[in-house]
Amino acid sequence: MLSAALADGSAHRRCTFEAFARRLPDGRRYGVVGGTGRMLDALERFRFGDPELAVVSKFLDERTVTWLSEYRFSGDIDGYREGELYFPGSPILSVRGTFAECVLLETLILSILNHDSAIAAAAARMVSAAAGRKLIEMGSRRAHEDSAVACSRAAYLAGFDATSNLEAVRRYGVPGAGTSAHSYTLLHTDADGPDEAAAFRGQVAALGVGTTLLVDTYDITEGVKTAIAVAGPELGGVRIDSGDLGVWARQVRDQLDDLGATKTKIVVSGDLDEYSIAALRAEPVDTYGVGTSVVTGSGAPTAGMVYKLVEVEGIPVEKRSSNKASRGGTKCAMRLARATGTIVEEVVYPAGSAEPDPGGLTAQPLMVPMVRGGVTEPGQPTLTQSRDLLAHGLVSLPWEGLKLSRGEAAVPTRFVGRDR
């Protein structure tokens, strides 16, 4: 496309591309904007050096290769802040510049936003299901080595408390946490058989009584008894990774209390998702360790966002394909809420026009400047600020928006100002 546009002169026409989702993943009631910070960082580094040019020069003409060698995005980007909620049709990102410089960003933008938004949305559902109890992201072994780091970041954005991925700790400042594995307990086996107590003694000696001991390598009841015998009643926690977690949590809580370990926490893990977390809400669980489900989006590994051309030289353009239609024109959006803070609807209207009348409701503009003249605007939110924004947004949803059952989007999107 770039080569053809450069050849016919259309590459330099001023355009607007828009990233949006036509629909939410099946059964979801809201989406979460994730990865914006990562996308802006990637945009600053998006260049064609000698190794990249060596690849594209095999199939592109010399003029296009030369153009790529000098590529720098020089346009503008507005969009929803990271951590903001979105709904079908929300103009999550508006990218403006020449056709050539904007069209090259499609994969860069979508690969990051689709991944991180999917993980953040799944993680947010788990946070809601946990109802204030702690969550540790433990899914690195179930993800690509690079996406695992992004998953940790997205889960923390959504409200998870910590991650076992130390690269996410280093790169993004996500709090780190974890427990030992079965292999450490199994290691303490000799000719006389397993020695679970020796394993526990070694861990406590190295890490102190505040550590969390994994008690289900052999027999859980015996494991708990041994753990308290070794560490004493001030043991920080025990982890259960198998069996009927609800039944075992109750039995272990009773056993710990009988042993005087009333402050010892119970951590559960083992193929948890938002549904099993919700099912454990009535049980004495203090912390959930979640792996596979969070790093795979709990059944929705992509947010389903698309990146479409919506305006050329001020003229709205749109697709009319069946089930894949788009709405033309550069857009703005605002969210209307009652005085209580509960969201009523999202309103999308043409950029440059007056804001629609909020009709007595509180109006919140949704799109903020992110890039001007190819340079990231100062003052972009930190990961912590984005995390706080999402927490506030979840509280503002109508009550049905937090239900885990299938249903329509929690908030309708209304388009004004242009006829289809």
Automatic annotation (TrEMBL):
Pathway: Cofactor biosynthesis; NAD(+) biosynthesis; nicotinate D-ribonucleotide from nicotinate: step 1/1. Transiently phosphorylated on a His residue during the reaction cycle. Phosphorylation strongly increases the affinity for substrates and increases the rate of nicotinate D-ribonucleotide production. Dephosphorylation regenerates the low-affinity form of the enzyme, leading to product release. Its EC number is 6.3.4.21. SUPFAM superfamilies: Nicotinate/Quinolinate PRTase C-terminal domain-like, Nicotinate/Quinolinate PRTase N-terminal domain-like. Gene3D superfamilies: Aldolase class I (3.20.20.70), nicotinate phosphoribosyltransferase (3.20.140.10). GO terms for biological process: NAD+ biosynthetic process via the salvage pathway. GO terms for cellular component: cytosol. Residues 1-114 form the Nicotinate phosphoribosyltransferase N-terminal domain. Keywords: Glycosyltransferase, Ligase, Phosphoprotein, Pyridine nucleotide biosynthesis, Transferase. Residues 134-321 form the Nicotinate/nicotinamide phosphoribosyltransferase domain. Pfam families: NAPRTase, NAPRTase_N. InterPro entries: Aldolase_TIM, N/Namide_PRibTrfase, NAPRTase_N, Nic_PRibTrfase-Fam, Nic_PRibTrfase_pncB, Nicotinate_pribotase-like_C. GO terms for molecular function: glycosyltransferase activity; nicotinate phosphoribosyltransferase activity. It catalyses: 5-phospho-alpha-D-ribose 1-diphosphate + nicotinate + ATP + H2O = nicotinate beta-D-ribonucleotide + ADP + phosphate + diphosphate. Catalyzes the first step in the biosynthesis of NAD from nicotinic acid, the ATP-dependent synthesis of beta-nicotinate D-ribonucleotide from nicotinate and 5-phospho-D-ribose 1-phosphate. Belongs to the NAPRTase family. This is Nicotinate phosphoribosyltransferase. It comes from Rhodococcus spelaei. The lineage of its organism: Bacteria, Bacillati, Actinomycetota, Actinomycetes, Mycobacteriales.
